Amino acid sequence: MLLRHDCRPRSKTARCATRKSARPSGQRVIDHQGVRWKLVDAATDLEAARLLAYRAARLIDEGADAVLPAAHAKKFATEIALKRIADCIQAMGANGLRADYPLARHLAGAKIAAYTDGSIEMMNERIASPCRRSSDDHLHGGDA
User: What rounded mean pLDDT belongs to the chain?
Assistant: First the structure.
């Protein structure tokens, strides 16, 4: 899955350490409401992506059909990773792209993940498939 447990703590630590110490205009960057809210959004989206992935994994473990839940998890995690990693880089300014912080590497990894195991467009088609079948059944007098 895109959101690997081994990468998150180091990225979060790097973000938080930098946010606490940076002081443009005499104020710590973390004290800026907009930055805090972006970090809160990232944490919320990470939790949502994790829950979607856990749901799909549970269905797989149970031997149930997990194609649709896995597509939802992949689509959401990939899209949100790209957006939130870019937000973190922006919050860090030019430092966000320095080699001693992992964010640029994570952004590249997220972009690669967007194409592996099915692109976002492929996930959209998987997610739309039951909707199309339901609509076709309805149009042709089915019980859907």
Answer: 80
